[in-house]
Design goal:
The protein is an all-alpha fold. The chain contains 21 helices and no strands. The chain has helices at residues 6-13, 23-54, 59-67, 75-85, 94-125, 132-151, 154-162, 168-194, 203-229, 232-236, 239-242, 254-261, 265-282, 288-296, 300-329, 331-351, 358-385, 392-425, 427-432, 439-465, 469-488. The longest helix is centred in the last third of the chain and has 34 residues, at 392-425. The two termini are 35 Å apart.
């Protein structure tokens, strides 16, 4: 089959003077994901907490303003296509990455300044008309943050450019392992910069450390980005060698790139697969900690350990998949295995609820994290295969859009399923009467969330089973040729 020829094709692809990427450079590239994790922790963790707890901004307003950045995810497709055809700062990918990370840092700092003004208005007059303009401005700043984040989409396209059949699973495994390590590093950096912020008794005392945090951390993240990417594209990228349009950078327009994107039914299949998979992976996020509290009687401190077990499991899954499972089983079989294992452990999350044993919950979450790591690596490597070299940025933008849409909807779906479950079991009526529902009433409600995810995993298996890489590559090649011929006409 065609797949057996890929390694030989990749080898002949190698431009003169271009080295094959080695382990050290793979680790360098992965460091970028550490920066992304740190920045995410900074904006979604620190700002969210300060606005709700210290500034008393309504939680709905806080969540609404911050979530605006997710609605900018369609720009990922545009930035991806731009990186295909319009070099920035002398690079197809790196220039957009640098600009995006710098924009994230600036917009995050601006968001903090607007946040103080919103908190001040809320403290003076309560939540009312005087606070509305500041809330709107905060949402606008997060829209800019979302655009800046979308501008970093070419990083994944860069992974396509520098990898081949032999190295792509290792690059993905290392990169997403670094993402998990970045969360740990982010906590340490944030705690170090904030210092004695817990001792601050007034908003005035809080401002200094928080402002300093949003200067120091973005600077660190930008430095990490430079360390990770400078020189990588020029030394290892095979974009020009692989692209049929390399000498005609304006030949594939955005409209033509979208036609290439939609030329194969495989694109739609994989887009739907990513939607279903991401929903099935993340729907439990808003309900896991309440699950630990209401079913297992865990304290706030104990429920925070749930995330640690999930993170450790995910890290083990990513590393094992990149270096063992993927070379052994191949992409599609690895993804199917990950879905099946995840489905089994989601049922396990319901089963351990019968024990009310906190350690059993932690182990179950850790095993689900292991399956999540397998799926993350498998789906990303498959995503790289389902990407045309000439329009890699456009395709990566589309895959990023699918994941962003799913992650944005997962929290809503998780909350909705839990509410429906409580309504069906009568737990909502008990709460309305001013009493506390029992664990027996609540467990089926949480079970509805986890079992829906388990079913979603089997839907994902059905979708990925229909994905045909060879068909996609043929359709994309024909669509690109047609686009170039039309441009010549």
């Amino acid at each position: 089959m065609a797949s057996s020829n890929l390694p030989r094709k990749e080898k002949s692809d190698l431009p003169l003077g271009r080295a094959e990427i080695g382990l050290f450079s793979m680790v360098r590239l992965g460091v970028f994901n550490m920066g992304v994790a740190i920045m995410s922790l900074l904006t979604l963790g620190v700002l969210n907490r300060v606005m709700i707890d210290e500034l008393r901004v309504p939680a709905l307003v806080t969540a609404g303003a911050i979530s605006v950045y997710q609605f900018m995810s369609p720009a990922r497709v545009w930035f991806g296509q731009m990186s295909d055809v319009k070099p920035l700062l002398g690079h197809h990918r790196s220039g957009y990455i640098w600009l995006g990370v710098a924009g994230m840092g600036v917009s995050a700092f601006l968001a903090v300044q607007v946040m103080w003004q919103l908190g001040e208005q809320t403290a003076i007059a309560g939540w009312g008309p005087s606070a509305y303009p500041w809330a709107g401005l905060l949402a606008a700043v997060f829209a800019l943050y979302g655009l800046a984040l979308a501008a970093t989409t070419p990083f994944t396209a860069l992974l396509v450019d520098v990898s081949d059949e032999k190295t792509k699973s290792k690059i993905v495994g290392i990169g997403w392992s670094m993402l998990m390590l970045g969360i740990v590093a982010g906590v340490a950096i944030i705690n170090g910069v904030l210092g004695s912020v817990d001792e601050a008794s007034t908003i005035a005392e809080l401002k200094g450390p928080i402002n300093r945090l949003f200067i120091v951390v973005p600077a660190i993240v930008f430095a990490i980005t430079l360390v990770s990417t400078v020189g990588i594209e020029k030394r290892f990228s095979r974009l020009e060698q692989r692209s049929a349009a390399r000498d005609r950078e304006d030949s594939i327009t955005f409209a033509q790139a979208l036609k290439v994107l939609t030329a194969s039914r495989q694109t739609g299949l994989f887009f739907c697969f990513l939607l279903v998979l991401s929903l099935s992976l993340f729907t439990q996020n808003p309900v896991l900690e309440p699950y630990g509290s209401q079913i297992f009687g865990m304290t706030i401190k104990q429920t925070t350990t749930i995330n640690a077990f999930f993170g450790m499991g995910t890290l083990v899954g990513i590393i094992t998949t990149g270096f063992v499972l993927m070379p052994l089983l191949g992409k599609k079989r690895t993804v199917k295995l990950g879905c099946a294992i995840a489905s089994f452990f989601l049922v396990g999350l319901v089963a351990v609820g019968l024990t009310a044993n906190p350690m059993a919950l932690n182990v179950a979450v850790g095993l689900f994290g292991l399956a999540s790591g397998v799926l993350t690596t498998g789906s990303i490597v498959l995503m790289i295969d389902l990407t045309a070299a000439e329009t890699a940025g456009t395709f990566i933008g589309a895959w990023g859009l699918a994941q962003a849409m799913a992650q944005g909807g997962a929290s809503l779906l998780g909350g909705a399923l839990l509410s429906v479950g409580k309504l069906l079991t009568g737990a909502s009526a008990v709460v309305a009467a001013g009493a506390e529902p029992t664990a027996a009433q609540l467990l089926p409600a949480y079970g509805l969330v986890f079992l829906t995810q388990a079913v979603g995993m089997w839907v994902a298996i059905a979708l990925v089973s229909r994905v045909d890489i060879a068909e996609f590559q043929l359709d994309a090649k024909q669509a690109i040729s047609a686009a170039l011929e039309n441009d010549l006409d």
